[in-house]
Amino acid sequence: xxxxxxxxxxxxxxxxxxxxxxxxxxxxxxxxxxxxxxxxxxxxxxxxxxxxxxxxxxxxxxxxxxxxxxxxxxxxxxxxxxxxxxxxxxxxxxxxxxxxxxxxxxxxxxxxxxxxxxxxxxxxxxxxxxxxxxxxxxxxxxxxxxxxxxxxxxxxxxxxxxxxxxxxxxxxxxxxxxxxxxxxxxxxxxxxxxxxxxxxxxxxxxxx
Length: 208
What we know:
This protein has seven helices and eleven strands. The protein is α/β, with parallel strands linked by helices. The protein has two domains: about 110 residues, 3-Layer(aba) Sandwich (D-Maltodextrin-Binding Protein, domain 2); about 90 residues, 3-Layer(aba) Sandwich (D-Maltodextrin-Binding Protein, domain 2), CATH 3.40.190.10. The radius of gyration is 19 Å and the shape is elongated.
């Protein structure tokens, strides 16, 4: 009821703009946002996907209220709340010789050929990645990996369906930079509208 009264005070249709990176939109973020919109019909939500560094700039410049990125990004002076762990893993064909390993350091992969996202951020890998193919979506990358085109470094949560159906295998990366988290970022608590704060709190209480 308090949210509904606040929404009425803010205007008949409160609006929230969110930018999220690929790791977030490829997992359970969209269902979580949809669930909030369903239970709060007065609220209009605009969710779009962009690279993390562009999201940080957009939030800092007050062009969007909330951003969802990884904590490996330079956040400047933005405030954050943790959504969930978002570890990077090695994605490879199910019949790959390495598929039986539980974990691996990136240094053991330097001679392999990679498939990657066209707009992916640069990981601190320590050496250039030999991309054979760069594709626009995580599903497209997984399809290429399953066909034996190369291996990929991807967020585990974003490829769970591919792992579950046996199309690809995933190996944990031992490097510290792979142990990252998804966070929701914003300029300051007192700059959030009641509706935006309620949506943020809804997202951080859901196991995405």
